[in-house]
User: What shape does this take?
Amino acid sequence: MLANLSDLDLKSLRIFCTIVEAGGFTAAQSILNMGLPRLSITVRDLEVRLGTKLCSRGRQGFQVTEEGLAVYESARKLFADIGRFLDSVGVLSGEPKTRVELGFVDSLLSYPGAPIVAGLERFKRESPTTHVTLHVMRPDELEKAVLEERLALGVGAFHHRLSGLLYTPLFSEEQNLYCSSKHPLATATNVGLMEAIAGAEYVERGYMVESQRPSPVNLKRAATAFNMEAILTMLLTGLYIGYLPTHYAARWVADGTLVALAPSATSYTALFSITTRQGKELDSVARLLNDSFVSQSTSPTF
Assistant: This one.
């Protein structure tokens, strides 16, 4: 029976909560960036520490036991209490009375209107004493951090919808397929271009699974990158093709360094959203931050 809590126990509880919210071990793998064996061992060790069965896996799928549900609900309350405790201690030590942490994906500063900057400007005017902590993460990392309540909210293009999260549309971003002016495709004619694109070495985004590939062409995946600067770096070698946001690539297109490949056939639009935790009401500061970003929305949903 658990008599005290260690840092390892807290980490294991967060992992268990994420598994429950994801609907099972398999779905939680990508969120936590952990393999099934490690997840299974973590939950098994937690069950030993707690002295009770938390969940089961079998032909009927993933199921949380009654005891597991009670542990999950208690853990969520515990993490909320820890957050309130840290805020209170911050006040005593003379630190800002309120804090908020948010994250967003990279390469958004060149987006027309810079909605991230404008949203933060409005938030700072309305909550001048709040200490803001910013993180730049991949979309999957943002979702994980919001689920684990390490971030109040995240802004990115999310290619799936995770159980336990809410997604509020903000704006759309055009994506084009590019190559360097040094690449053979840069001077290719329209005749046979799509076949040539299919045969070219392609830089894939490591956080997007194969079923979420943006192009209708069966691209030849030859390299992997996890942010826009990494993709651009690969493209500039003249050896790969890859997708970039149109606004981000514009300066290199303007000076002739990058060339868009068959944009009418290969371009697509990515929807950017705010993600927040489902089932948890935002505190006043996080709600103000959320509203500040929503005020910059260009999505037709609003």
In short: The radius of gyration is 22 Å.
